Amino acid sequence: MNMYETAVRRALLDVEQGLYAPEPDDSFQRYAPYEDNRLVVVNNFRQLPHVPCTAIVKQTAHSLGHLFKAYSTLTEQPLSPSFVSYYLRHESQHAACARMLGATAVWYALAFRCAEPNVRGQVFDIDGAATIVQAFHTTKLGLAIMSVYPEQPSSDDMRDAFNLGYDSARDVAERAIAYNRQGHHYPIPLSYTTGQNPQD
Length: 200
What we know:
Elements: H1 3-16, E1 39-42, E2 54-58, H2 61-75, H3 81-101, E3 106-114, E4 124-133, E5 136-139, H4 140-148, H5 155-163, H6 169-180, H7 190-193
Antiparallel strand pairs: 1-5, 2-3, 3-4
Helix pairs in contact: 1-2, 2-3, 3-4, 4-5, 4-6
């Protein structure tokens, strides 16, 4: 059993024991009253090294692909290439943005849950993939940019932006553009530049 299969197996054992992956973090709401350029600490490393029902690897998005493969091998559940490709692209885009904003360590996570009762013969489901960054400082706007940076922000990504006080991915992008005209160097969300913004 390789390191990816070991990580996935441990996470699946958590699911079998009735544990749950952590709920999405709504703590961003505390930053909503802040100005765009107010410094905040990005730190979703709090629960490492072990997060229940979650396999975590450090390195590259390629490693996340190995976690998907390990899951498919251990559960004998094939995953469609397009499903895996979407998550690899999405999480690598989050990670790229985090690095542009100053993150120096990035981890990738794959969370699991019990399958829905109506799924015949299936014990586990993938609960989602995530990019985890080691603590670093950025601004409230930078945190919002990191949330909506991918070409296709997820509903969780959009929830983070809303919790920070922004109306949409377009709102975040246009504020970044305005600050860049004043000499800042914010990355512009791909969701804005590619025209795939789900809520503009």
